[in-house]
Write a structure and sequence with these properties.
Number of domains: 2
Order of helices and strands: HHHHHHHH
Protein name: Olfactory receptor 14A16
Radius of gyration: 20 Å
Pfam family, one: 7tm_4
Strand content: under 5%
Organism: Apaloderma vittatum
Number of helices: 8
Oligomer: single chain
Membrane topology: Multi-pass membrane protein
Number of strands: 0
Subcellular location: Cell membrane
Length: 187
């Protein structure tokens, strides 16, 4: 969301960039992103540790993800508590997604009004890495958490878990560094 806002200000309001995104604003946005991520993780972690397990504590997975821990639960209230947290998380994530979508609509409207081709290309090239990373993250997340139970198998769950948790963070620096001309020349 912060990256989308940054791209919006850089492209749609370039003369106000320094005013709107000064050091203080950037620090506040970074703190808000870190705090919201930490709070979300903390709520899910506390809820996960309060789950009463009746089928042992061995998770047959590479990592302990919430759906696999809930499968070991004896209580339906554990599911309901986690479902409530997930609904809140999804609502917040959907709000961020809508904000990013609106930002990029405004960005692409502004880009289409740029009279010269080179300027349009430069504006789009600043947005594409962010869109690529967000698309990779969202598509792998949807695949990990929204696939039907009939598609669930231990090996597929492992592949999807690794894809979701390792690939986007690993590819993120690579995608952003592809804008670096020295790196392009090296490749």
């Amino acid at each position: 969301t912060v990256m989308a806002y940054d791209r919006y200000v850089a492209i749609c309001q370039p003369l106000h960039y320094g005013t709107l995104l000064g050091n203080r604003a950037c620090a506040h946005m970074a703190a808000a992103a870190w705090a919201s991520g930490f709070l979300n993780a903390l709520l899910h972690t506390v809820n996960t540790f309060s789950v009463s397990l009746c089928q042992g504590n061995a998770v047959g997975q590479f990592s302990c993800e919430i759906p696999h821990i809930l499968k070991l639960s004896c209580s339906h209230t554990d599911y309901l508590r986690e479902a409530g947290l997930l609904v809140v998380s999804v609502c917040l994530a959907f709000g961020c997604f809508v904000f990013m979508l609106v930002s990029y609509v405004w960005i692409f409207r502004a880009v289409l009004r740029i009279p010269w081709q080179q300027g349009r290309h430069k504006a789009i090239s600043t947005c594409l890495p962010h869109l690529a990373v967000v698309s990779l993250f969202l598509s792998s997340g949807f695949l990990a958490y929204l696939k039907p139970p009939s598609m669930s198998s231990p090996s597929l769950d492992l592949v999807v878990s690794v894809l979701y948790s390792i690939v986007p963070p690993a590819v993120n620096p690579l995608i952003y560094s592809l804008r670096n001309q020295e790196l392009k020349d090296g490749i």
